[in-house]
Each structure stands twice: as structure tokens, then as C-alpha cells.
Amino acid sequence: MAELKNDRYLRALLKQPVDVTPVWMMRQAGRYLPEYKATRAQAGDFMSLCRNADLACEVTLQPLRRYELDAAILFSDILTVPDAMGLGLFFEAGEGPRFERKANTIDTIKALPIPDPEDELGYVMKAVSTIRRELNGDVPLIGFSGSPWTLATYMVEGGSSKAFEQIKRMMYSEPAALHMLLDKLADSVTLYLNAQIANGAQAVMIFDSWGGALSHAAYREFSLRYMQKIINGLTREAEGRRVPVTLFTKGGGLWLEAMAETGADALGLDWTIDIADARRRVGDKVALQGNMDPSALYAPIPRIEEEVASILAGYGEGTGHVFNLGHGIHQHVDPEHAGAFVKSVHELSRKYHK
């Protein structure tokens, strides 16, 4: 594998010194870029794009050609694992992801297989190895998965949900069934992330998009517990380097201290939390990633720079901060605004790294 030329993202996650604060964007390969839209049209549909290693590689690299980002992230979807369990993932225009079959009874959950990541998810591993090769050591490659709770919400509901009525009904009335599902998902995600690492991912991230929908006690029992199980089973060193893991619970600001106890190297923050407060709360236990409101990228460029400066000042001096948006970049953002965002992080952060 090629020598890594820019490792500041990995260094910041491990709280090692950096020259400037590293930056990347969640969903940086996506619909705000005209070149992405062209490649997706070439693929035919979203899952065909995910399943074609060369095209998945192409869209992963597109934002890196435009911007001086400090990391690439695998182009894939969090729902590849439930799809590989046989639920039949498809996307409806304007409706988002749907499943042909639900995992909403004890019998359907018992019947779910744990997918072999090199077989049923081999197309993801091919994409990882292709991207890693084509990056040629320019920046690290991030692998990822959805959290067990987040994946379970789609599997029980049959798709996206606002109220999470069906999975919460299961949680309160049939907790044993839900625990069985979450346990299978934790095992599946552990295998999936370890296979990504074996194929070249240099850091991994667990996206708990819907953990914030849970009550205080339920979050620990049904979300954090299973992310902890994954972390306990992850490969933490490859190619002679530590493989950092980042946990991101959207709406998870209440639970930062508990998340920091899991052994994760970093926590992702959404925009609802003050980063200075987050740093005080977790101390030196973990690095922090975040946390600008993605909608701030609609602002005029001088206002974007003010927002970046404010978050950098909130974190303060020293390493352990990876700058990012508090969630994925919106599809209608002007690509020039995204570029100004990336540039301003590097320029304005230099003074915090002596």
C-alpha cells in the first residue's frame, strides 16, 4: 500500500499533534456536485452506483479533486447490511429507502442470516480496495456502517420513519425480540467493519442516525450497548497503525460521557451542542468531530467563515478536533460554498496548533 502523504485526520483522531485542523464532510460525495449527478445517471440508480466498484470509486474521489479534504469516505449506504440479510432493499422516488420484507416478528428475526462480508457484501469490499488503491496514499479512507439501532429501525418499520412507532412498540412490548435483532446486527456490523479494514479502510465510523429518538434509559439499553459490543470486536490495528473508530449519535449530546467510556477514539457531534461544552465534558478521553450546521453552507461566504471561526474558537487550542458538519451536506448547497468552508478551516485553524 502507498505511504500516507496526509495523515492529519488520523493524527487528530488519536489526539496527536497536527499543523491545522483536519476537515471532511459527511456526504461529501453526493448530490450537491454536478459530477456526482452525472455519474449516478450513468449508473442508472443509487444501488447500481454502490455495486459498481469503479463508479463508487469515481464518486468517492470527486470531492477530493475539488477540495483539499483530509479524508475520503467510502461511497456506500448504511442499509447494505440489512439488504444482505435478504430484506430486499429498494429506493422509491421521493420516498427514500424501502424494504420488500420487514423483520418485525420473532420468527422473521430468527430466520435472518449474518451475512459474509466477503460474499454477500463483496461489492462493498471491492469498492474499498479499489478506492484505497486509487487514493494512492493522498489521504486516509474512512469505512463505515449504520449502528444496530439505526439499522433495526429501517428493518422493523420497512423503511424511513418519523415516529418509529413499530420499533418502539416492539421495544416496549417484545424487548427480547428486539434484543435478538440488535445482537445479530452487532455481530454483522463487526464482521462488516473488520472486512472493510482488511480491505484497506484506515478508520471506521458508526452512524447512529436515530439514537436521538430514544429515551435516556432506552438509548443505553438498545443503542449504546450494541455499539459497545461492536467496538469490543473491532480490529484496532492494521498496516502498523491504529485504526481509529468514531461514534456518531445524531441528537446524542445527552450521552457524551457514556459514549466516551466505550473505548471509541472519537465522538461525532451534531450542531445542537456547543463544542466547548462537549470538550469540557469528555476531557482528554476522546477526540471530537463536528459540528457546523449543514444549513450554514447556504450563507454568504463571509458568514460561513465566521461560523467556522466560532467553532474553532469553541474547541480551542491543541489537537483532537476533526472539523465536519453536524450531519450530511445538503443537496442544494453551492459547491463554491463547500470549498470556502474547507479552505477556511485550514486557514483559520493554524493559530490553534503551535
Account of the 3D structure:
InterPro entries: UROD/MetE-like_sf, Uroporphyrinogen_deCO2ase_HemE, Uroporphyrinogen_deCOase. Pfam families: URO-D. It is found in: Cytoplasm. This protein has 354 residues and is α/β, with parallel strands linked by helices. It contains 15 helices and eleven strands. The protein has one domain (8-352): TIM Barrel. It is 47% helix and 13% strand. The strands form three sheets. Strands 1-4-5-8-9-10-11 form a seven-stranded parallel sheet. Strand 9 (266-268), helix 13 and strand 10 form a beta-alpha-beta unit.
Main features:
TIM Barrel, alpha/beta, single chain, 354 residues, seven-stranded parallel beta sheet
Quick summary:
By secondary structure, the chain is an alpha/beta fold. It has helices at 8-13, 34-43, 46-51, 53-66, 80-87, 106-110, 122-135, 148-157, 165-173, 175-198, 216-233, 256-260, 275-282, 301-315, 335-349, and strands spanning 72-73, 89-92, 96-99, 141-146, 203-208, 237-238, 241-242, 245-249, 266-268, 287-292, 321-325. It has one domain (8-352): TIM Barrel (Alpha-Beta Barrel), CATH 3.20.20.210.
